Amino acid sequence: MKQSSPFHIVLIEPEIPPNTGNIARLCAATGTPLHLVGKLGFSLDDRYLKRAGLDYWHSVEISTWPDLPTLQAAFPHARFVYASKKAASCHTAFAFREGDFLVFGKETEGLPDALIDAHPDTCIRIPIFGNVRSLNLSTATGIVLYEALRQVGKLA
């Protein structure tokens, strides 16, 4: 029986095919729907994208959206949680709820400042202790998704 995740992953304008492929594999492993928003930096037929998650591609519920407002309109009662290194709240201090949409920005720019500024109560960050600019998108997605799953008791 297929177990489904209580969360959704949202990637806004992802640029690097292997990152999206790895995230698709994560989504397959957790039964999490994947939403790709805006202009993608690759084709969904890209061989590098599929190579990263090839054995699992058919197991992922993938939806594409022209922009974030269209996705939000399709799920008007959902809460969107925005991951950014610019957010004030740590992901482990945030109280995730089943049904949350976990939103990540493109690799080179992250999420727009205006989006972060407009939603301070639902913005989270992953602490970085070393001298690096940011974490890899697929790594960050895994960290946040598994913390959210842990909080709602889905890892037992």
Q: Helix proportion of residues, in percent?
A: 25-40%
Order of helices and strands: EHEHEHEEEHEH
CATH superfamily: SPOUT methyltransferase, trefoil knot domain
Total beta-strand segments: 7
Main sheet makeup = 7 strands, parallel
Structural class: alpha/beta
Give the strand line-up of the largest sheet. Answer: 3-2-1-6-4-7-5
Distance between the termini: 17 Å
What is the CATH C level class, in words? Alpha Beta
**Percentage of β-strand residues:** 15-25%
Topology:
Layout: E1 8-12, H1 17-30, E2 34-37, H2 47-53, E3 62-65, H3 68-74, E4 80-83, E5 89-90, E6 101-104, H4 113-118, E7 123-125, H5 137-151
Parallel strand pairs: 1-2, 1-6, 2-3, 4-6, 4-7, 5-7
Helix pairs in contact: 1-2, 1-5
Explained architecture:
With 156 residues, the chain is of the alpha/beta class. It has a single domain, classed as Alpha/beta knot, CATH 3.40.1280.10. 31% of the residues lie in helices and 17% in strands. It is built from five helices and seven strands; from the N terminus they run βαβαβαβββαβα. It has helices at 17-30, 47-53, 68-74, 113-118, 137-151, and strands at residues 8-12, 34-37, 62-65, 80-83, 89-90, 101-104, 123-125. The protein has a seven-stranded parallel β-sheet with strand order 3-2-1-6-4-7-5, with helices on both faces. The two termini are 17 Å apart. The mean pLDDT is 91.
